[in-house]
Amino acid sequence: MLVVTAAITLVVWGSRDMTIPYTLTQTLPLSLDPIYLPYYALRTILRMLFALVLALTFSFLYATLAAKSKKAEVFLIPVLDILQSVPILGFLSITVVGFIALFPGSLLGVECASIFAIFTSQVWNMTFSLYQSFISIPKELTEVATLFRLSPWRRYWRLEVPYAIPQLLWNTMMSVSGGWFFVVASEAITVSGKSIMLPGIGSYIALAAKEQSTEAIFYAILTMLIVIFFYDQLLFRPLLAWSDKFKAELTARNEIPSSWVLTMIRRSSLFNLFNILWLKFSKFLDKFVQALSFKTYEVAKEYDTFTKIIRKTLTYSTLLFIFFMFFYYTSQAYHYFFDKIYFNEIQHILYLGFLTLIRVVVLCALASVFWVPIGVMIGLNSRLASILQPWVQFMAAFPANLFFPMVVALIIQYHLNPDIWLSPLMILGTQWYILFNVIGGASAIPFDFQELTKNFQVRGWLQWKKLYLPGIAPAYITGLITAAGGSWNASIVAEYVSWGNKTIEANGIGAYIAASTAAGDQPRVLLGVIILSLYVLILNRFFWHPLYVFATTHYRLD
Asked: Over 431-473, what HEC string results?
């Protein structure tokens, strides 16, 4: 009761300060004094928590619709590719003015823009993971659900969601950890040439980098270490221990994940009461939905012809609306760009995009060679996973931009080539997508299969070829897609690095967008974002998507 009361109090207290009166002419107080860091940490945690709730809600709705409807899948998955390709700065520049106008005279508008930016850094990986789990459920499990005549509602909550939970949790941890990489950009927002620094760890780091205070950065690192420890102990470790029961296995494991928080919850009279009430409510809801589905089916049979006409009318109206909107905005974009930007510059931007593409491909390949064996080793050993998980989370959550000052100093001191030595900064924050997805994929390999390979003495490369690589293939491809997309996003902050009054720039489309943003050149910012998004979209459609379909169809656990 004490823990629950304290958590509710902190949420209410931190949320109240998000709605204080505010105008763009005001300057929010922000200090590098470490005594304020606990409060800043609370504000950042609340933003990430609200963004996580929105991301989970969006992921379940979007992934379910894409997996259940083939017609919707044809449209939703390409749209998801486009949204994933848009940089965080692109979302911020588009949405922040709208959110401020939505809540005039209140800080809530800027807070919503910050939460939305964090949401966009989390949601795509989670949605792809959930979609991949929904379409890769083993056939024998779906056949059992059919034999038991489960309704679509029961099939969803008794089979599809439980099967997806273990993989979703690992990707949720990765999304939350990856959100820390963009927390600086989401809390230090520029609107109409004015910089707004929301109280939080991200803005604290931005102010420390501006004033070149290494002591303040050290305090920020220490605070993040404490926050990640609490995240692990109070949220993710209990969820991972709870989700172990959803793994589709026939053989019992020697070691079962545990959590002192989960044990406390299971032994608590308060949570037992909540559990009894929830079970009664879920049974009532189950019967209600079943009855409603039956009535809806009967009504649909009577008005089948009418519903077909309505469906076709809505479909053609939507397509016509999309066509006119595309034509209108294409003509507007043509006049917006070509009145100020010549074709030679567009060719140059395409060349810069190709340079960034080479960096992304090389860095993802190197990260795969390094992290795939480590991820498989961690995922197959629950004891090792429980020991290393907090450290992996901390490394993933550690903002790579804190390394930028050291890189700038080394490049200047030793006269190094920025095109080469700035490149690793792109993968520092996104390589963890590969590691977390591989860990999740390896932990989802049924223990029966592992015992089978041991009994037949399958070892070495043959074991990797027949069990480990096929077992992690769908999750690994998902990790590669999100890591590549994250690297494109990270190029904006990694190819154009500032520390105090020193700036180093590498040749690439990320540096072009960052430099145009710093100069306030909106047409070039928008053009750079569009070309970057086109690169990502083309790669997803013609390379990543066919590879993903191959992995999910050829390496199913059937």
From this structure: HHHHHHHHHHHHHCCCHHHHHHHHHCCCCHHHHHHHHHHHHHH
Beta-carbon contacts of 502 under 8 Å, excluding residues fewer than 6 positions away, are: 408, 412
Tell me how far apart the alpha carbons of residues 94 and 99 are, in angstroms, rounded to a whole number. 10
pLDDT band at 18 (very low <50, low <70, confident <90, very high): confident
Distance from first CA to last CA of the chain, Å, rounded?
Answer: 45
| Residue-averaged pLDDT of the chain | 79
User: How far, CA to CA in Å, does 163 sit from each of 130, 259, 306?
Assistant: 10, 21, 37
Q: What is the pLDDT confidence band of residue 108, given thresholds at 50, 70 and 90?
A: confident
Q: Which residues contact 155 (CB under 8 A, 6 or more apart)?
A: 145
Distance separating alpha carbons of residues 141 and 156, to the nearest angstrom: 12
- 482-512: b (≥16 Cβ within 10 Å) or e: bbbbbbbbbbbbbbbbbbeeeebbbebbbbb
Q: What is the pLDDT of residue 394?
A: 66
Cα four-point dihedral sign 502, 506, 510, 512: positive
DSSP assignment letter at 21: B
Helical axes 509-519 vs 343-380, angle rounded to 10°: 120
CA 234, CA 178: separation in Å to the nearest integer?
19
CA angle, corner 156, sides to 73 and 553, nearest 5? Answer: 50
> Would you call 330 helix, strand, or coil by DSSP?
helix
Most confident stretch, 89-98, 186-195, 225-234: 225-234
192: helix, coil or strand? Answer: coil
Long-range CB pairs of 530-535 (<8 Å, 24+ gap) are 530/333, 531/346, 531/349, 531/350, 531/353, 532/85, 532/87, 532/353, 532/356, 532/488, 532/491, 533/82, 533/85, 533/86, 533/90, 534/85, 535/85, 535/353, 535/356, 535/357, 535/488, 535/509
**Is the pLDDT at 78 greater than 90, yes or no?**
no
Q: Enumerate residues 6+ apart whose C-beta is below 8 A from 22.
A: 28, 105, 106, 107, 110
DSSP one-letter code for 20: S
Query: What type of residue sits at position 468?
Result: Y
CB-CB contact of 492 with 471 (8 Å): no
- Token output for 96: 């922040």
pTM recorded for the entire structure: 0.75
d(CA 385, CA 387): 5
How far, in Å, CA of 277 to CA of 272, rounded?
9
Total length of the chain: 558
